[in-house]
Amino acid sequence: MRISIYRWGHFNAAHRLHNDHWSDEKNKEVFGKCNNPNFHGHNYEMEVRLTGELDPETGYLFDLSELKRIMKSEVEDRYDHKNLNLECSEFKDKNPSAELICYEIYKILRNVIDKKYDIGVKLWETPRNYVMYPAEH
Amino acid sequence: MRISIYRWGHFNAAHRLHNDHWSDEKNKEVFGKCNNPNFHGHNYEMEVRLTGELDPETGYLFDLSELKRIMKSEVEDRYDHKNLNLECSEFKDKNPSAELICYEIYKILRNVIDKKYDIGVKLWETPRNYVMYPAEH
Amino acid sequence: MRISIYRWGHFNAAHRLHNDHWSDEKNKEVFGKCNNPNFHGHNYEMEVRLTGELDPETGYLFDLSELKRIMKSEVEDRYDHKNLNLECSEFKDKNPSAELICYEIYKILRNVIDKKYDIGVKLWETPRNYVMYPAEH
Amino acid sequence: MRISIYRWGHFNAAHRLHNDHWSDEKNKEVFGKCNNPNFHGHNYEMEVRLTGELDPETGYLFDLSELKRIMKSEVEDRYDHKNLNLECSEFKDKNPSAELICYEIYKILRNVIDKKYDIGVKLWETPRNYVMYPAEH
Amino acid sequence: MRISIYRWGHFNAAHRLHNDHWSDEKNKEVFGKCNNPNFHGHNYEMEVRLTGELDPETGYLFDLSELKRIMKSEVEDRYDHKNLNLECSEFKDKNPSAELICYEIYKILRNVIDKKYDIGVKLWETPRNYVMYPAEH
Amino acid sequence: MRISIYRWGHFNAAHRLHNDHWSDEKNKEVFGKCNNPNFHGHNYEMEVRLTGELDPETGYLFDLSELKRIMKSEVEDRYDHKNLNLECSEFKDKNPSAELICYEIYKILRNVIDKKYDIGVKLWETPRNYVMYPAEH
């Protein structure tokens, strides 16, 4: 019996969108005010999904307090109140766009959660837009 | 032309997580404060999805006021202001975890809604975590 | 690397549900108070999903300010503060049900957005019910 | 011991803003797209507040199921799925603006609820703007 | 310069409404399904307000992480995953109605927070109704 | 007839809490992770309230599209996608705490809105905490 569970987490961070291989003009044109060299920031909200076989002894798919602990220690403690461009090595060579932050969170969790569970991550950059990895098909 | 419709419902209930085949120590260790013998409770919010072929005469997939009536008579009246462990026979031998409540709601609705519609159920136990059956793939 | 992005928009409109080929009695019976000849209305909220391959140069799937612009010019400007039955030709011969408004929005966007992106549309008619096209499977 | 309780209700309606004593040009200039002669509509959400002395025998200020019943029979049944301009006599000579709908709801409730309770009404016209009567001071 | 700050907290609990001095019939009549002897439960959400003079050195009214710590240790740890009737002495002789839970939270906080701050508490029993003490005037 | 109207706006910004007259140790101790020299950020949501006498000719207190325009040009364009410490002169000598940003927004609006209207501003720094100026009494 396959089922999915979902849990929310959040962190606040500063970032800037910029491609080092482009001119300032092109960066400004493509990224607009998100290119501000002094940074801006967001309250990021994330939803993590685990899919797998229910454990009939507990009626759980996965212990939610354990999932909460993992999301805090692996993701929130890493990104909360940070400058993503300056302080997170994974964004040294690529843009901390919502898409790529979401993908990094997926990779972090994929590394520490048993492969018998499928994982999905949604990341809200504002209450009006968000991304999802893997893609909804 | 296949389309999906979704409707929300809710109920408030008390429950306790406990496995009768385990010692008190193991129950306490696995279920933590959810194992409190005096029960605790939640405002459960559910989202029911129906998927199928649009009726070209009405522009409806399914009459929403009929779906609302079914959700009230079959699910909300059954669980609202109840103690799930003591008053709902389906949880006599299994835990009223969010996963298994969601699955029971699915079975109840699957029984009364025409098989030409696919059904999906999401169940929020708190605003920060929920489950979905059948699993999101 | 496939990913999905989502953006919200909204419009307020008046509508009425009615099938011209039916008697007044049947219309009243099937559509209830939604059949009111003087119309009623809603705050429609929509969520548009694009799925496709990430652009590694920007870290974007699709420029969100461009998506916002398209949703405004193609959908919101068309439906906002309108009477859907009287002022929108696509509902001359069919009901402006949530299902069919959602499908029209899908067709509008499918027409203007590059085919390399898959599109999905959710449309909320009230905070308690919504529809999705293409169907969730 | 004075305390306040609050309960939410909702209705969907069509309306139009228009001053009969003004020219079409002035109406268009002042009310913009809200002046559309074919109407538009909203999902109105209301919050009703009662303030007064707690009843020590029940621990209630006022029975919430009774307040729910009053809000349904006096307000929701009156306005839900209606055209406020054409079907509600209180708006024959004045605009069904959010401000004046809110004030009418206040007067309706003030008439049927015991004077020992103070009343306040908030009315959301969209998720982004609302009004309150009596004024917050 | 007086200003107000607000912080949210939450707990899940079971309760039952019952007046020991009344007959079973009267209890059933007044409290309806809230009188269920097997209890039911809620996700309680609270909003705590502090009002006072801004500290010009920090730009804070009150350190929010300290307020969060107080709300957790004094309120959430006391009520979360508890049966309010059976496990909380303050409800031995009075009903754990939303009104009286709110009042108890107020008294708990009033006892531990410096008197130079005014305090207000809102308590949601469901997403559709809540109470406030002291009363909104 | 006095009434209140409310409108929401939002902006995203980076900030850091720091008192120049204090040692690094004291700044770290008082402001914790909010003191990060590389900045962090938030999605700020604001609610602006106007209170005054209803205009009987329009049924409006104040034209909401005009209020929206003012909030955009005076507040959102000033703070959106900015670094509040480095780019906004009002925070050169004081901390961009939620309290002081809220107060600055109040002053900006007080300057451009007719004195016959009372003004109130709420500012959310996260979905879980916010401030209000003038104080709720």
- Characterize the biggest β-sheet of chain A: 5 strands, mixed
Instruction: Please give the count of helices of chain A.
Output: 4
Strand percentage of chain A, roughly? 25-35%
Q: Approximately how much helix is present in the residues of chain A?
A: 25-40%
What is the CATH architecture descriptor of chain A? 2-Layer Sandwich
Number of domains of chain A: 1
Mean pLDDT over the full residue set of chain A: 97
Q: How would you describe the shape of chain A?
A: elongated
User: Within the CATH hierarchy, at the fold level, what is the topology of chain A?
Assistant: Tetrahydropterin Synthase, Chain A
From the structure provided, what is the oligomeric state, counting identical versus distinct chains?
A: homohexamer
The CATH superfamily of chain A is identified as 6-pyruvoyl tetrahydropterin synthase/QueD
Termini of chain A, distance in Å?
22 Å
- What class do helices, strands and sheet pairing of chain A give? alpha+beta
CATH class descriptor of chain A? Alpha Beta
Rg result of chain A: 17 Å
